Design the sequence.
């Protein structure tokens, strides 16, 4: 996911600082690009109708998630209203400290006008080259880019959801309205027919193609299970290509337990996220974290609190991407069923964000918590991760229950609380910082 920002200046020729407006615009853009943003300088300082029309023409040829308005001096606010009538984008108002330019009071004026016409906006204040201002701008822009990205996502729901987990029942309308994605419902026969059509010889060939990934792993599953699992990988990949899917969820429990897990792990390294048990909302939660981190995401259950160490154990059967392993990888039968191939390993250490999305309509809610993944053993056969929190784990436990948060937690590397909070604000999703 690219974060595209378009920056334009705003100033009045009569005001102090007009001659410095272009310089402020350039400095602001440079500070953002230094952080790795894709900030495009429109190269126009709005001050009359001609400059507004010139900026609009240039903006129509640019891909942008947000429009950054660099307010150099007090200015007539109608120039922005005119610009937005040509190119209506989410807006960040950027003001600069100065006594005599009127930059800040102009920003306040614009904020009042936007409020009265129902135009939402964000605000950043500080020196043009200030790193914290650039970081805040990036967080805001990332949330809008995430919303745009999710609006193009298609998630495959294969076989529906697992019976007995009413909590994960997905509402296609609220998913489209709130998360942006479209659910593609697929009969599980579409998957199994593709599995059946693949010969053992073709499966052997596919395993050889994946030897660079699989060879370092400790093999505990049978050859028969490996052949079956790689066939499921092939089937899932084919479906992803046929239906242009970026996310998948299979009703795995109990029929396909251990059959799709290896495929999930392989697809994770190819940028396709996959959730367990037919939990479509969790697949989209994984997609959110994948776009933010550009790394595979761990699909887990919250299992155990260690009150003395203030840690929580998260784990599931074992279907995460190889690249987030913190040690040896085992290809082993799934627990309980003792069949198939799971990709078992402990997750590597580092800062992580755990996210749960559940609910429907106006009650669609996102819960987020961050902590530090610490060294652990194979405390649960799958992809365990033990997270140490600053907040008391008993308080975390209580807040989960108080707010009706579900049991599936997607864990990604990095701290994305601010980006996810802003995403929820944009999309009208209830947000809980647990």
Sequence:
């Amino acid at each position: 996911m690219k974060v595209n920002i378009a920056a334009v200046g705003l100033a009045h020729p009569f005001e102090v600082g007009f001659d410095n407006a272009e310089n402020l615009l350039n400095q602001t853009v440079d500070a953002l690009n230094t952080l790795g943003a894709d900030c495009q300088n429109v190269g126009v300082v709005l001050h009359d109708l001609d400059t507004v029309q010139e900026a609009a023409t240039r903006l129509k040829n640019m891909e942008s998630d947000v429009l950054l308005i660099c307010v150099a001096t007090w200015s007539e606010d109608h120039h922005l209203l005119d610009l937005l009538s040509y190119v209506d984008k989410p807006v960040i108002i950027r003001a600069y400290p100065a006594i005599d330019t009127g930059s800040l009071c102009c920003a306040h004026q614009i904020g009042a006008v936007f409020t009265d016409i129902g135009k939402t906006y964000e605000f950043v204040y500080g020196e043009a080259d200030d790193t914290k201002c650039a970081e805040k701008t990036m967080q805001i822009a990332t949330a809008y880019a995430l919303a745009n990205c999710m609006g193009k996502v298609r998630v495959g729901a294969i076989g529906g959801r697992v019976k007995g987990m009413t909590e994960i029942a997905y509402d296609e309308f609220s998913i489209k309205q709130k998360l942006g994605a479209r659910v593609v419902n697929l009969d599980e026969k579409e998957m199994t027919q593709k599995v059946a059509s693949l010969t053992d010889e073709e499966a052997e060939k596919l395993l050889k193609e994946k030897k660079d990934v699989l060879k370092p792993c400790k093999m505990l599953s049978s050859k028969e299970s490996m052949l079956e699992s790689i066939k499921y990988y092939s089937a899932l990949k084919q479906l992803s290509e046929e239906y242009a899917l970026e996310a998948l969820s299979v009703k795995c429990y109990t029929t396909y337990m251990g059959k799709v897990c290896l495929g999930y792990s392989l697809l994770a390294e190819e940028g396709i996220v996959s959730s367990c048990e037919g939990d479509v909302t969790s697949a989209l939660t994984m997609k959110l974290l994948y776009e933010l981190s550009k790394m595979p995401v761990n699909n887990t259950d919250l299992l155990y609190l260690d009150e003395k160490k203030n840690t929580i154990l998260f784990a599931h059967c074992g279907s995460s991407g190889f690249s987030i392993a913190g040690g040896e990888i085992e290809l082993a039968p799934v627990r309980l069923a003792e069949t198939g191939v799971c990709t078992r390993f402990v997750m590597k250490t580092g800062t992580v964000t755990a996210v749960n999305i559940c609910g429907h309509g106006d009650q669609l809610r996102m819960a987020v918590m961050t902590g530090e993944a610490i060294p652990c053993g194979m405390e649960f056969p799958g992809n365990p991760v033990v997270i140490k929190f600053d907040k008391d784990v008993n308080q975390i436990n209580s807040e989960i229950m108080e707010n009706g948060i579900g049991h599936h937690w997607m864990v990604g590397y990095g701290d994305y609380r601010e980006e996810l909070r802003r995403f929820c604000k944009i999309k009208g999703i209830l947000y809980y910082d647990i």
In short: The chain has two domains: 4-150, 154-433. The two ends are 26 Å apart (CA to CA).
